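thought: fold this chain, then report.
action: predict
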Amino acid sequence: MSLIPQTYEEWEHCITVKCGIPLTPEYVAERIKARGDANDFHTQKFIDRWGKMHHARTLAWFKQAQDRLTT
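observation:
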């Protein structure tokens, strides 16, 4: 596994196992709202550090997690 997750499964492992953060509906919705806001300070810092492509991929993974939680 690389330092930066390349797949949904790697990202989910990083969030839930390495960071110990449960992917609850509330947490996922909060992160989608924050990461979807281009004016959010933390989103801007995330993009500065990891790039636009990883930001888009991470946002897509949160949306995928949301889909999995609602099915």
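thought: worth noting. The chain has a mean pLDDT of 95.
final: tokens above.
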